[in-house]
Amino acid sequence: MLSMISFVKRNDIANAQGLYAVRLRICKERQRRYFSLNIFADNEYWDEKNECFRILKNVRDIKQKEENEQRKRYNYLLNCYRLRAQEIIEGFQRENIDWTLNQFADAFLNKSKQGKIKVYMENHIKTLRETGHIGNANCYAATLNMLEHYDSRLDQKTFSEIDIKFVNGFDVFLQKRGCKGNTRKYYFKALRSILNKAILEKEATEKTYPFGKAGFQIEKLTEETEKRYLPVEYLNKIKNTVSEKPQREYARKLFLLSYYCYGISFIDMAYLRRNNIVKFNGGEYIVYKRHKIQHQKGVKPIKIKITKEIEHLLDSLNKNNPTVDDFIVPIVSISGYTGEKLYNHIRGRYKKYNGYLAELAEELQITDMKLTTYVSRHTMAMMLQRNDISREQISQMLGHADMKTTNTYLDSFDTTVIDEAAKVLYDV
């Protein structure tokens, strides 16, 4: 059985002097990790059993004396390294930390900031921003900010301390702040994703993992959201009523463009460029991947045939609001933006668009529901379902990664369907 702390000499690779590196080996739960110490030995003077250098007695030769003294110094260093390793492990044990080999390495190599959840999340957020995943970066940043509000000592927390007790306390904290189930779900999904990533990268252990079959159940937080699809009469109002104000008319046309383009989101509309228009099957198509899941494995592109209605809306929008660069929908209004700057610009335009939609709803006397960017998407999906289009086809048109999301959209029937079904009760 291997000792938790030991020193071993390599036997495969020698340096220029024909000596082999002596390394510190740390073992835990059948896993091991080696640490270079800048100490070298040969077979003659290395005591494998006692894990130290052999010291000669009664040495008279000057060169041998010097080499003997060097081996004594090496033994002293090995003893210091052993004590240091023991102190680190004992420190973990005192704090009831189920440490990983990576956490030991952080402590042994004086990288004390690593192996802790806050720094790990900050590094992940930075990577996401640098690779253009701005939406995901913002999600993790919001979660980290909320965790810091919950725990003022989060910068000292290691992964093993993010256990079921911590998670339950965080949930109570969010409830006291007035967060509803879906908002709490948003934070917990981000936290779970970070822990899963850390476990995969050996930064965390599964022993204190707070989610899973016997742990905190995130899906139980799901709340049915208010229905966000338009009755037919409201949809016809938007189709047939030209607004008196240019900003509202701009919003009306964007809303209809989204509706006809299979409920394309505002963000995805904003990112559409000339190269997203492709010719095949005797016509032109808008072909794109949803921005929020474009990097996920197996995501298929959405293909939207450009009909006369879509073509007319694009021409009309561009006539009054010229596009910049090679965008095809006039949402981005400043040329040259890329990366996070472009994303933030689009988010700013998104807020203005929702404001214009609110004004349009008031003008058209749509008073019993809030008109937002999501309404066109939900209305399109519900209209397809009312006309007996299969859920598999609807899911493909929406660009959902799985049917579960589509079913969430469609599982609750609108009141007209329920009302018709209820007539059976009176026809008996």
Automatic annotation (TrEMBL):
Presence of keyword DNA-binding: yes
InterPro entries in UniProt: Arm-DNA-bind_5, DNA_brk_join_enz, Integrase-like_cat_sf, Integrase_catalytic, Integrase_recombinase_N, SAM-like_dom
Name of this protein: Phage integrase SAM-like domain-containing protein
Tyr recombinase domain span: 225-423
Organism: Bacteroides difficilis
Keywords: DNA recombination, DNA-binding
